[in-house]
Specification:
By secondary structure, the chain is an all-alpha fold. 65% of the residues lie in helices and 2% in strands. Strands 1-2 form a two-stranded antiparallel sheet. β1 and β2 form a beta hairpin. It is globular, with a radius of gyration of 21 Å. Bound molecules: Phenylacetyl coenzyme A.
């Protein structure tokens, strides 16, 4: 007898074939992808705010040009990701409404403030570094449009990570005040960057299914460990330290041990009680309202084109 759609889907997943928009897929596979891709897209556009804060105050013309390019890349990543989500049968306008109503999430990391220029360096090094660690395996995600979007995004994130590292490297070799500013930024971003990987595996509601469907390839804790192993080495090249007294090489495990993440802080940020949650969402809603005339103009233009084509 011919295989049913579910058997075909299962065989494609276990055979490492890509699922494409027109293929049959289980409802909960579709729902999981919409949740994760929308959250990822929202993170990219909300993630423009903390660094966007420094565009008008970047310390040189060159730094300003690089920062503008980086923030524009984030907008672009948001757009590729909304497009990937739309292949699953949702509309981006609907997803934005859910974000604005607080019914879909964005990454916890973007609820922290950027009081100094060194924060731009720390975001590039730690936040983009964590993002790459999480996203490289997503290039092999079972859903084709998401996996393909990730390939280009990862290339751009690598440039972002390098520019952040270089900012910190320069500051760490600057005046005592610049060095202190770099260390302070690293101290403030280290723990929140570890939280980006999500709750511990024992608390991760979606990991089991997402790993079975090959959306996720590694668990939250495995990726967090991989990231710590990388930054524990890189911080030495910077000549700075990580604010973690328990950070130590464990030869037996072949990994760095690290301290306990404050999961109560993570939960509070997810609930909306982080330092900048309200500001971020208000700014986003205002930006959306300010853009209403652009959407209106685009609709009017499309209608005119359609009329002309019909005439
Ligand atoms: N923040 O069951 P799990 C970037 C939620 S990088 C907020 O483990 P899952 C680049 C989770 O949604 C940042 N919420 O979930 C950039 C779930 O909520 P629910 C974006 C979080 O999905 C750099 C609940 O906790 N990257 O933007 C977080 O299997 C610089 C239970 O968690 C991505 O989104 C969190 N950190 O694993 C831009 C990567 N962690 O639905 C600008 C793609 C978990 O039960 C500047 N996403 N939650 O209410 C993923 O890989 C996964 O979704 C994880 C979470 C690993 C984040």
């Amino acid at each position: 007898a011919p295989a049913g759609p579910r058997q075909r889907f299962d065989a494609m997943i276990s055979g490492e074939e890509r699922i494409e928009p027109r293929d049959w897929m289980p409802d909960d596979y579709r729902a999981t992808l919409i949740r994760q891709i929308a959250q990822h897209a929202h993170s990219e556009i909300i993630g423009m705010q903390p660094e966007g804060n420094w565009i008008t105050r970047a310390p040189s013309l060159k730094r300003k040009a690089v920062l503008i390019a980086k923030v524009q890349d984030e907008a672009g990543h948001g757009l590729y990701l909304y497009s990937a989500a739309e292949t699953l049968g949702v509309d981006r306008a609907e997803l934005l409404d859910l974000l604005h109503e607080g019914r879909q999430r964005y990454s916890s990391i973007f609820n922290y403030p950027t009081p100094t220029w060194a924060d731009v360096g720390a975001i590039g090094w730690l936040v983009d570094g964590a993002a790459i660690t999480n996203q490289v395996p997503l290039c092999r995600c079972s859903y084709g449009p998401y996996a393909r979007a990730m390939v280009r995004i990862c290339k751009e994130e690598s440039f972002h990570q390098r520019q952040g590292f270089e900012i910190l490297h320069v500051l760490a070799r600057g005046t005592p005040r610049q060095r202190a500013m770099a260390q302070d930024a690293v101290d403030r971003w280290y723990w929140p960057s570890l939280m980006m990987f999500g709750p511990p595996d024992s608390e991760s509601a979606h990991s089991g299914k997402s790993m079975a469907w090959r959306i996720k390839r590694y668990s939250n804790d495995d990726l967090r460990q991989r990231f710590v192993d990388i930054i524990a080495e890189q911080v030495r090249a910077l000549g700075l330290t990580l604010p973690d007294p328990d950070l130590a090489w464990n030869a037996e495990r072949g990994h760095y041990d690290f301290g306990a993440v404050d999961w109560a802080e993570f939960t509070a940020v997810l609930k909306g009680d982080g330092p900048c949650n309200r500001q971020r969402i208000e700014h986003r809603r205002a930006a959306h309202a300010d853009g209403a005339w652009v959407r209106e103009a685009a609709r009017a233009h499309a209608a005119k084109q359609a009329d002309r084509a019909a005439a």
